[in-house]
Design a protein that fits this description.
This protein is an alpha+beta fold. Helix content is 30%, strand content 17%. It has one domain: HIT-like (HIT family, subunit A). The protein has helices at 11-16, 61-81, 127-142, and strands at residues 24-27, 31-35, 45-49, 86-90, 106-111. The protein has a five-stranded antiparallel beta sheet with strand order 1-2-3-5-4. Helix 2 (61-81) crosses helix 3 (127-142). It is globular, with a radius of gyration of 14 Å. Bound molecules: adenosine monophosphate. Adenosine monophosphate binds next to loops.
Length: 143
Amino acid sequence: MADTAYDPDNIFGKILRGEIPAHKVYEDEHTLAFMDVMPQGEGHTLVIPKAPSRGLLDAEPETLAAVMRTAQVVGRAVKTAFGAEGLTLFQFNEPAGGQTVFHLHVHLIPRHEGVPLRRHEGGMADPTVLADHAGRIRAALEG
Ligand code: AMP
């Protein structure tokens, strides 16, 4: 189990309830994917479950399956949209594990040979650029 209970007032809970905007790329019954506002690489995307899970440790197995299914679907599109050679997934649990937003999420980052990741939470991206990147991923999902 997680160390602490789920708090619905977290920022991804607010995105799920439509209380704050996000550059969405994919949505189904159980999951949502959108652009990370502080990307560690071009195309950095987050996949979250709609179920209120704090992290890996308190999520139902069905929730984890849905998140990973979406990570595969969106991961393929992200890799295609950015002409990447690889794809890195991250998932952090609790502050000591590097987690800063306490709603389960998987990071998807397209990777290019020899290009290092930028720092975690290194700086806000231009919203116009994020909107363009989200459009590229949605187009790859449709293609
Ligand atoms: P972590 O909890 O450490 O896995 O990281 C949370 C991630 O959420 C970071 O990469 C942030 O850049 C990202 N983030 C924080 N707020 C938002 C937001 N409103 N929309 C999209 N991404 C966000």
